[in-house]
Design brief:
With about 210 residues, the chain is an alpha/beta fold. The chain contains 9 helices and 6 strands, in the order βαβαβααβααβαβαα. The protein has one domain: Rossmann fold, CATH 3.40.50. Helix 4 runs parallel beside helix 6. The chain starts with a strand and ends in an 11-residue tail after the last helix.
Length: about 210
Amino acid sequence: MTRIGIFGGTFSPPHNGHIRGAKAFMEQMWLDILYVIPTAQPPHKEMEEAVSAAHRLRMAELAFGEIEGVYVSDTEIRRGGRSYTVDTLRELSGPDRRLFLFCGTDMMLTLDQWKDPEEIFRLCYPVYGRREKDHSLDQVIVDKIAEYNQKYGKVVRKIRVDTLEISSHEIRQALSRGEPVGEWIPPAVEAYIRENRLYGTGGIQA
């Protein structure tokens, strides 16, 4: 049985927190393969900026490409339109595969609001990692996991991730203000952003 992880997102841009999460996901879930899958259009929010899917795919390749066992997939971008996780799970599922879906706390808490949640829980084992340190969510998380277990018969698993107190949104804002972002994103991703003048940046900077 091949253990396959799925890590989706806009990755606009991918940052060191994403990389930490991917590595922790692979190690703690004993994955054979991890697919990093940039969305075409997330169903739960509108894209904040006009950075093409091709740019986001290339940045993901630069960010994750050197991690052994990680493959950056364009499956949702090729499919086009709004990217629904259940469609990707159906595409990747098979009798010799066990699928694990990685998400953050906010996404985990709303899994039952996604398209075809029963099918999502049938096809995969959800896994979450906490980026935030809001302890007011502790009981909310416990209760929600118990609800999922009772309703769908699956236990949502947690992995330990070293937190990075930054989001892609905050990185985009810093880039647009001309502030340094080197501590948050891989050098190759920053160089690509500046070379292609993404997020309101100029050209290559020293």
